């Protein structure tokens, strides 16, 4: 399926965005474009925001086919790369608003973890929020979204079409609550 003009433009702009470049200890070294960070296997910062409704269900969404990583996969968290000069919390607020249209909610910070996958190396900030506001999906990034129970999610995670980095973020969240 071909990408829309909006998806093509969004992908090109996204690849050129300057994002935080950090070392193995999460110390800022500078900023690089997303594409350079990936190509050189350097470490960046990113955020994962787990959005729950008041019934305790988690919002999961399917990524567009134009995404550089995991196109068409299901994701358990909104989020993305931390921009140059941006804090983890600022990035989390921005990403939640951009991807799902949720603004003005309290973000709870669940700390950081290092992700070293074949596709990316990241220091990850994990946040959670609760909202019953209607979702406004960003069409260049999100195909569809739904809320499901954590029990249902555990059964579905075995399908193999889930983003592995956000699965780790969910596990980090669950571990930090015990």
TrEMBL record:
Coiled coil: none annotated. The keyword Secreted does not apply. InterPro entries: NUDIX_hydrolase-like_dom_sf (IPR015797), NUDIX_hydrolase_dom (IPR000086), NUDIX_hydrolase_YfcD_pred (IPR024195). It comes from the Bacteria. Keywords: Hydrolase, Magnesium, Metal-binding. Residues 42-171 form the Nudix hydrolase domain. GO terms for molecular function: hydrolase activity. SUPFAM superfamilies: Nudix (SSF55811). It holds the Pfam family NUDIX. The keyword Hydrolase applies. Belongs to the Nudix hydrolase family. This is NUDIX hydrolase. It comes from Ectopseudomonas mendocina (Pseudomonas mendocina). The lineage of its organism: Bacteria, Pseudomonadati, Pseudomonadota, Gammaproteobacteria, Pseudomonadales.
